[in-house]
């Protein structure tokens, strides 16, 4: 993997581009001297967790011939207080699935993703992040 990162203003606004040309803007908060023109780098980790797990869950359910008509994840995360660097301490995900889906299969797909397949989840876990989740089906 190759990533190119370029500063694009006189502050902290950065543009990262992967080898396929996909771009992401990052910046710091106004309080920290940024212009709030992009995602914070630490937020990207949590977003990556959601994306990684979402791909796993949908893939597992498709293989089980479950009909997923809607899917979203809400994520709440807290960082360590009073530490530098300040790592993610707790991350809670709520998986919202709709469709003709067996509840046990949905729960198992999420469990497999979070405990076995999602590399971002394991990366966070190795940093002592407490990962929790719940599954809401057709709610």
UniProtKB/TrEMBL annotation:
SUPFAM superfamilies: OsmC-like. Pfam families: OsmC. InterPro entries: KH_dom-like_a/b, OsmC/Ohr_fam, OsmC/Ohrsf. PANTHER family: PROTEIN YHFA (PTHR34352). This is Putative redox protein.
